[in-house]
Structure formats: structure tokens, C-alpha cells
Amino acid sequence: MLFWILAAFLTFVAAFAVLRPFAVRNGQADDAPAHDIEVYRDQLDEVERDAERGLIGPQEAEQARAEIGRRILKASEAADSQAGKRNASRRVTQLTAAIAVLAVPLVSWGLYVFTGSPNMPAQPFHARATEEPANAPIDELVTRAEAHLAENPDDARGWQVLAPVYMRIGRFGDAQTALRNIMRISGDSAELQSALGEAIVGGAQGMVTAEAEEAFNAAIALDPKEPRARFFLGLALAQDGKTEDAQAMWRDMLADLPAESPWRVAARQALLSSGDTSVAAAETAPTGPSDEDVAAAAELSQADRQDMIEGMVASLDAKLQENPDDMDGWQRLIRSYIVLKRPEDAKAALERAVAALGADAPESQELKAFADSLGIKSE
Questions:
Q1: φ and ψ at residue 356, rounded to 5 degrees
Q2: Least confident span in 4-8, 14-18, 122-126, 269-273
Q3: Nearest to 145 by CA among 160, 123, 167
């Protein structure tokens, strides 16, 4: 109700401001007959003064008075006629202006009554965001969380919620602050130290700095098998040019990680990027090699080892022809062909996989994206 009262009041004020100039009579309007009448009256006064001084005779004075009187009468008639026309024109103008000004709010209000929702309750943005936080934009949620933590800096749960959000939106400096606050309140842990190291690496554009290494080493001291710390420490070795040491760390990491660990993918990709082709054999083999197989492979020459890897890849290719629904198998086959520097075979495998899975299937789209990340473009 308050909204409608304010709207009506503001509409009245605006209409009054527009109509007021039309209602005020212009006292400076050009009125020629009235001016002539004033001139004729001055002439009458001058005739009287001349007659009193004897400059003109009585008969001449009477004639002059009669002539000036006729002119005054004629000017008065003209003034009355112009005043009538001017008043009529002013009334038409005022009426037109009033109709035009009043039509705007009346028409708009009328349209709103029929097309709008005048009975809908007010929905302030802050109230809606408070009632339905899931519908609020991420920036709004972060701002609200920051305001809460500014008043409650020892709320460990709040910092735990905010830290990964900072990482996801690229605010690595704020993520470091959040992680340090968590450690200050809840105590140190290998996971928190490794997360802090990752935030430092993110802020350094992917470089593992000395500060980041310190955090990762602190994580390893608390848990020697912490996967994130081991991965980034291997990356630090690779960035320092110690490729073989980095590969050894990643291979040890793969040997310790459970099969469902997401860090297995990162370690494999790192080994492949560093030129370690032995990971291709590990990925393409249907089961892990036995100790005898590993010992035999170690004694093979480079050419024989390459033949063994290609044999495993061919075996996987044959299995996929029998079981074309194996999404992970297709990914391993495409990656293996890339490692073996056979991009045409990788592209052919991608085309066969898409044909087997269906061109419009979600698996095919995922596989195309995977191949694209390896430099293989689908047709």
C-alpha cells in the first residue's frame, strides 16, 4: 500500500510541475491595442496642456479630443477582440496539456492492472538470497561468507567451506589465508599442508616455489603417502630438470595409490608428458604384470621393449573389437597410440569408438573431448 501512495504522490507532483506554466498568465505578452490606448491618452493630456497654455484654440482642441476619442474606442474594441481570442487559445492549450499529462499515468496504471501483478508481495533481493541461498550467484555467497567470517574469524567450518571455493574461482591468495586459518583453529594435517602448497602453486602460475615445497614437505612429514604432496614434489623435480627423479617419484606414487584414487590419472599423465612410455604398457595391459614379466621386460633391449608395448596395444585393440562398450579401454588405446607416435591410428581408434558407442551418445562426446585434449580432432 505504501508503494501505491508514494507512486500517486510522485505522479501528482510531476503533473503539477508540468501543468503549472500553462496555468500562469503571461503578463508580458505583446498587446498592441493596449499600447495604442496608452499613447492616445498621453495625446489627450498633451491637447489639454496646449489648450490651457493657449497654444491651440477651443475649437481645435475639441476636434482633437473627438478624433483621439474615436481612436481610443477603436483600439479598445480591438483589445477586447484579441483578449477573447487569447483566452480561448489559452484554455485550449491548458486543456490539451492537462489531458496529455494525465493520460500518461492513467494509461500506464491501467495497463499494469491488466498485464502486471499488483497483488504480488514485495520480493527484495536480499530476502530472496537469504531464503534460497542456492539460487544466489557465487559472488554473493562468497561475499556473505566473508562477512560472516569477518565477525567470526574462529569459525573453522566457515573457512573450510570457503577455501575450496577460492581455489575454484582462482583466488589463490585468499585460499592460502583460509587454509592457514583452518590450521590455526583446528590444527595441522597432511591434507591441509598439501592443499596450502597447491594454492601457492596456483598463485605462482603453476611453478612449484620454495614456499610451496616447504608446505609439501611438511605434508609428507605428517603422511609419507599423501598423494597431492608427492605429485607436486615430483613436478618440482621435473621443473628443476631432474626428469628421471620425477619419473621415479611418480612411478612409486602409482604403485602405492589405490585403484580408485583420482591422483592415478594425474601421475600417469605426468609420466606420459615426461616421456616415460612404460606407463602405456601398464595402462593397456588387461591385468597388472607379474614379477616375472617385469624382470623379463627389464632385460629386453629398447627395440624388444617397444615390440612388447605394441603387442599389448594390439591386444587391447582386439579386445575392444569384441567389447566396444569399454569406455576406459578406448581412452587407454587412444593414449597409447599417441605415446607410440601413431596419431593416425589414434584417430582411427576414435572414429571406431564413436561408431560403436553412437555419435550422439554422451560417452562419445566425452571421448571426443578426451582425444581433443591429446591433439586428436574428430571429423
A1: -75, -40
A2: 122-126
A3: 160
The model's pTM is: 0.45
Q: Is the pLDDT of residue 327 over 50?
A: yes
Is residue 121, in this structure, part of any structural domain at all?
no
Residue 95 has pLDDT above 70, yes or no: yes
The region of weakest confidence among 180-189, 265-274, 311-320 is: 311-320
The grid cell for 165 is 571455493
Length of the chain: 379
Split at pLDDT 50, 70, 90, the class of 309 is: low
Would the CA dihedral through 172, 174, 180, 183 be positive or negative? negative
Rounded distance between C-alpha atoms, residue 275 and residue 174, angstroms: 36
Question: Which stretches within the chain are classed as H helix?
Answer: 2-23, 32-53, 58-115, 125-131, 138-151, 156-168, 172-186, 190-203, 210-222, 227-239, 243-256, 263-273, 278-284, 291-299, 302-322, 327-339, 343-357, 362-373
Give the closest residue to 324 by CA, choosing from 336, 311, 335, 333: 333
Q: What percent of the chain has a predicted confidence (pLDDT) above 70?
A: 73
Burial class of residue 232, CB neighbours in 10 A (0-12, 13-18, 19+): buried
Q: Report the C-alpha gap between 283 and 277 in whole angstroms.
A: 10
pLDDT digits (tens, 9 = 90+) for 145-159: 899 999 999 999 999
What would the grid cell of residue 326 be? 569399454
| Residue 212 pLDDT > 50 | yes
Q: Of 85, 115, 145, which residue is a domain's last?
A: 115
Q: Evaluate whether residue 41 is within a structural domain.
A: yes
Closest by CA to 330, choosing from 354, 300, 358, is 354
Per-residue burial over 265-299, b if 16 or more Cβ lie within 10 Å, else e, is ebbbebbbebebeebbbbbbbeeeeeeeeeeeeee
Q: What is the DSSP letter of 205?
A: T
**Tally of domains within the chain:** 2
- Identify the sign of the CA torsion 151, 157, 160, 162: negative
Neighbouring CB atoms inside 10 A of 317's CB total: 19
Question: Do the domain assignments include residue 220?
Answer: no
Grid coordinates of 240: 628443476
